[in-house]
Specification:
Blueprint: E1 4-7, H1 10-25, E2 32-37, H2 41-51, E3 56-65, E4 68-76, E5 87-94, H3 98-106, E6 111-117, E7 130-131, E8 136-139
Parallel strand pairs: 1-8, 2-3, 2-5, 5-6, 6-7
Antiparallel strand pairs: 3-4
Helix pairs in contact: 1-2
Bound molecules: 1-O-pyrophosphono-5-O-phosphono-alpha-D-ribofuranose, xanthine (XAN) and magnesium ion.
Xanthine binds near residues 93, 95, 137 and 143.
Enzyme class: transferase
Subunit structure: Homotetramer.
Membrane topology: Peripheral membrane protein
């Protein structure tokens, strides 16, 4: 289990994904975008809108079940991206780099971009926006909802 959480709102994810698009603009154009599903789908859609990319491919890798890590399973390989040359590969984050390693083997020439990166996965990413510590769990807006929180005074000072 992570020691702390970094909560990302829809607004922040949109801003951070646009910041990623700005950085990626400098080194395009790209033939198309490969999104690593499912977490990469929304950042990929935002980046695609900003870069005016219309060709979107997916690769599906399942590595986690909630916060438990398992063996990475490729449930759908990328059909149209060859060895990745000229393609932009997008995921929401790199943590241990396990998913990234599997996908990079399939698309060694793609430019790999994520919105967030933790130190262990960072060397595998070409472009990212925000680094968080390894013991932090990033809480994405699609995994969370607003709920009531008790006043501090009722927590017994803890
Ligand atoms: O660097 P790693 O340790 O491999 O972790 C990062 C990967 O884990 C999450 O995907 P997950 O397996 O939870 O699947 P999902 O995107 O379908 O939610 C996340 O979206 C990244 O793809
Ligand atoms: O929602 C998530 N937050 C994380 O920090 C993380 N690391 C791997 N997979 C993850 N999924
Ligand atoms: Mg994922």
């Amino acid at each position: 289990m992570a020691n702390r959480y970094y909560t990302v709102s829809w607004d922040q994810l949109h801003r951070d994904s646009k910041a990623l698009a700005w950085r990626l603009m400098e080194r395009g154009p790209y033939r198309g975008i490969v999104a690593i599903t499912r977490g990469g789908l929304i950042p990929a859609a935002i980046v695609a809108r900003e870069l005016e990319a219309r060709l979107i491919e997916t690769v599906s890798v399942v590595t986690y079940h909630e916060e438990e890590m398992g063996r990475p399973q490729v449930t759908k390989p990328p059909a149209a991206a060859g060895d990745g040359e000229g393609w932009l590969l997008v995921d929401d984050l790199v943590d241990t780099g396990t998913t990234a390693r599997v996908v990079r083997e399939m698309l060694p020439k793609a430019h790999f971009a994520t919105v967030y990166a933790k130190p262990k996965g960072r060397p595998l990413v070409d472009t990212f926006i925000t680094e968080v510590s390894q013991d932090t769990w990033i809480l994405f807006p699609w995994d969370t909802e607003a709920q009531f929180v008790a006043p501090i005074a009722r927590s017994g000072g803890k």
